[in-house]
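Reopening this ticket.

The earlier resolution said the output was attached, but the attachment link was broken on my side. Pasting everything inline this time so it's all in one place.
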Amino acid sequence: MSSRSDESSTPYQLDRLREVPAFHRDARRDGRLSEGQLVYYGPQPSYYGIGEVKRINGSDVAVDFRGTGLFNVHEEIIEQRYLIGIPPEKMAEL
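Inline output:
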């Protein structure tokens, strides 16, 4: 069972990231991610947290989340349409 204390376990203020559904135009751009880029799971940022793109294989992307979200996921393979890149200027707010 999740509690409020779980939400504060991440070093990031994930509530500052907007939710972006998988079929939103910002999530449907092919080839927009690159290795080393910081991303988050668009539909619900707090679930996985913020991660670094490790490998890209077609539409599948391996992301190292380092346990920064509520699910405590360290590495996951997710379709690119679910991931949103984080601009460097936005990182200062998180």
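Reporter confirms the inline version is readable. DSSP finds three helices and five strands in the chain. Confidence is low (pLDDT under 50) at residues 1-7.
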